[in-house]
Each structure stands twice: as C-alpha cells, then as structure tokens.
Design goal:
By secondary structure, this protein is an alpha/beta fold. The chain has 13 helices and 16 strands. Helix content is 32%, strand content 16%.
C-alpha cells in the first residue's frame, strides 16, 4: 500500500498522521524544522504551540469550541488525548504545559510503526500520490510560491502576534492575586488559575498613552496589516478607542482584588499559567507588535509587573491562508490538483483546536481514499462539519477571512430544539444535535 504523505508536523499534520496510521495506512510525515527554522517556532518537535498554551473553552454543552473538543475526543484524536494528559488549571478553559504537550505528541508519533517522520523541507507540490499539505500559517517561502503557482492567485494573508511570557517569581503577589473570572472551575486550582494585576483609572490612562506612543515593528514592503480580529495586537485595539482594552482582555468584571476587596479595579491584566511547574505565565490577550525595548518598558507599567523578567517577548509574523472556498472541494482537495488535500490553519480556520480538527478530518479522508473508499464530511450540524463547510463553500469567497468555530456556522435549529428561546436553551440544543450527528457519522466508518 502506498503511504499518505503529509507536509508539516504542526497540530493539523500530527493529528492527520495519527488518524491515518490508526486506520492501518502507512504515512510519511515531512517536517522542515529544525533544519529550516521559522520566526515563531523554538524546537523541532511536532505540534509545537507558539502563540498560546490554551485550547480555549472545554464546555461541550454551551460552547462551540468545547463541542469541537468533544468530537475530536470521540474520534480518538491524539491532540485532545495528549492535551488532557498535560492540562493545567485554567478555569473553564483547556490549557496545557506546551513543552510537555509537544514532546508527548512527538513521542507518540515516533512510537507508531506506520508513521515515518522524515526531516527536510518539501519545496514543491507533488504531481501524484496521496498528499496532505498542513504547513500552517508559516508555510516556507518556496512552498508558498509553489502553491501560488498552482492556484494562480496570491494567497491571502493576515498578521498574527505572539503574547509575552513572564517568569512567575518576578510577579509581585503583594499587588497581584490569583483568581479565575467569576471563580470559574470545580477545584481550587481551577478557581485560582489566573494571576490578576489591577489598574486604577490613572494607571490605565497612562498605560494606554505609553502603548500608543511605543515604537512598533515596521512592515516589510508590500505587506499590509490585515489582522484577524480574534488575535489583534493590543496596540491596534487601543487605536480603536481608549476604552477598547478595558472592555476586552483588560475587563475587570468577575474579579475581586484579594488585597483590597472594597476597591473595584478600573482594569485588570490577567496572566495564565504556561507550564506545569507554574514558573511561567503568559499575559492573556497581550499579543503585540511593539519592539522589544518598548515592550519591556510598557509592560512594566502594569501594577505587579514592575520587576517582571520576560522568558519571551511578543512578536509578529505573517500568517498565510488560502481562499479555500474557491480552491477546495468538500473532501478538502484542491480542485486543480485532487491528489492534494489541505488541512489546518492554511485553509482559513483560526485556532489550535480548529486546525487540529481539520487535520483529523483530512487524515480520515486520505486514509479512506488509500483504502479504496470515499468519506464524506460530517454533517454541517456538527462543529467539525460546520468548519469544513465554511471553508469549502459556506463562506463568501470575496470576503473570506479566518474563522474560529462558533454557533453562527451551524444550521439553524428547528422550533422543537431551539426556536426563539434564549441561548441557555439554544446552545445545548446545538451541541446535543451535534453529538448525535457526529456519533452517527463515526458509526458509518
């Protein structure tokens, strides 16, 4: 049996490889790192998480992301199983120790006898064979050029920024306190999963002034700043209005200052644990394109971070993605070259979970093809099906932009299941329908 080839061992490529091998089909997983480095990656491990350590909400009743978690677990996904083993307290979210997570995914793939991990860059699109391109937003220049040559169009692009990471021991806990918003979580660790730094109004105003005045990274010639709204740099948010951050990542709601319970903070900066040891914390929602020197000065204006030491400062890089509604069919194949499937963030889904889910689906479809079968996508009533429907025809091609999974991508509920009721009724109806339909789809395989 001819192997399926996968280009890229990120979350999507790693999940695709796992699904293919579990179907009894050999797979070759090509990864250019560490021989060919990227701006954002630090290791050569598979499934390295670069922007955050969070898979977002794990609520599979009231949240579309949580429902996507549920579907990936039901399908025997490697990414979710590994995330569950390396999870960290994060309130209602699923956050992981990113280094341990990546190392565990790599070890699992290397231990699978049907998977060969082959080092080196693939710089062209093969004319034949069964291939999955899962190179993610940091597709190499040479391969991106090959993709443009085949598609006949310029790939769309937006800019994604990376949040800074702080050494926990340098946070002043006489100012900051531990608490998840609204004390969310079933255990004390979950309820204290975040470190909170409060700001008074004068402190907030001074911070905004410094943020707006700070020196920013310049764009290269020919690049434009088309940001994905779910990952805006904080200075771009501040430019949209002085109160924008206070109603976004710095909102003070659901939090009580443990040191001054009678004083309501005007704004709050939250940090989330980034590793199992609790020695590193990332600043939540603080993606930035400020230059390094400016970052250090501005972030040390945050109460509790005056003496902060940074394990990593923020950065910015270009994220490329296809205009998938014009290029891919519902089996995730390129229409001009049906031997090529695309998966992950390069298809125009946004987020770790969404990228891995598209890898899971592409892997199952490629394995089915290798076994002489055809696998249709899950119904659009499921989280996975809603995403693949969006990127392969559900979205308007002229305005196509990266999208997280959300209930707006799901078909409307009938009156019996949702109707005009509020979201407390509608969301469980969406996820209940999705569970039924995804289970039925799995049963056909």
């Amino acid at each position: 049996m001819q192997p399926v080839n996968i280009i890229g061992a990120g979350l999507a490529g790693s999940e695709a490889a796992w699904q293919i091998a579990r179907a009894g089909v050999p797979v070759i997983l090509h990864e250019m790192r560490p021989a060919v480095a990227t701006f954002a990656h630090k290791t050569g491990d598979c499934a390295e998480m670069v922007c955050s350590n969070s898979f977002r909400s794990d609520d599979d009743v009231m949240n579309a992301v949580g429902q996507l978690h549920w579907e990936m677990r039901a399908a025997g996904g490697l990414i979710m199983a590994t995330a569950d083993r390396h999870r960290l307290p994060a309130g209602g979210a699923l956050a992981v120790d990113r280094e341990a997570f990546s190392a565990a995914v790599t070890a699992a793939l290397r231990a699978e006898t049907l998977i060969e991990i082959r080092a080196g860059e693939v710089a062209d699109l093969p004319q034949d064979g069964n291939w999955i391109v899962a190179t993610g937003p940091l597709t190499s220049d040479r391969l991106a050029g090959a993709i443009r040559a085949v598609t006949g169009t310029e790939a769309l692009a937006f800019f994604d920024a990376i949040a800074p990471i702080v050494h926990a021991e340098t946070i002043d806990m006489s100012v900051a306190w531990e608490q998840s918003r609204y004390d969310k979580g079933e255990t004390e660790a979950e309820q204290k999963a975040y470190v909170n730094c409060p700001m008074t109004r004068p402190e907030y105003e001074a911070f905004i002034d410094a943020l707006l005045a700070a020196e920013k990274t310049e764009f290269r010639e020919g690049e434009t700043a088309g940001y994905f709204d779910g990952c805006l740099p904080i200075e771009v948010m501040a430019e949209r209005g002085r109160e924008t951050l206070r109603h976004g990542p710095m909102k003070p709601v659901g939090l009580t200052n443990a040191h001054k319970p009678q004083e309501k903070p005007y704004a709050v900066v939250q940090l989330r644990r980034d590793n199992a040891l609790g020695t590193l914390y990332n600043i939540v929602g603080f993606q930035t394109k400020m230059k390094y020197g400016a970052q250090t000065a501005v972030f040390r204006m945050i109460p509790g971070l005056e003496r902060a030491a940074f394990a990593r400062l923020g950065g910015i890089h270009r994220n490329s993605f296809l205009n998938s509604p014009t290029l891919l069919d519902d089996r995730m194949r390129m229409r001009q070259r049906p031997n090529l499937r695309f998966a992950g963030q390069v298809t125009g889904v946004e987020g770790y979970v969404e990228s891995a889910a598209m890898g899971l689906l592409a892997g199952r479809m490629a394995a089915a093809q290798a076994l002489g079968r055809d696998l249709p996508p899950p119904p659009s009533t499921t989280a996975t099906g809603a995403l693949v429907n969006h990127i392969t025809g559900g979205a308007e091609a002229k305005t196509f932009q990266p999208m997280n999974v959300n209930f707006g991508l799901f078909p409307p509920l009938d009156d019996a299941r949702g109707g005009r009721r509020g979201r407390k009724d509608r969301y469980p109806a969406y996820t209940g329908r999705a569970k039924d339909d995804f289970s039925a789809w799995l049963a056909t395989q």
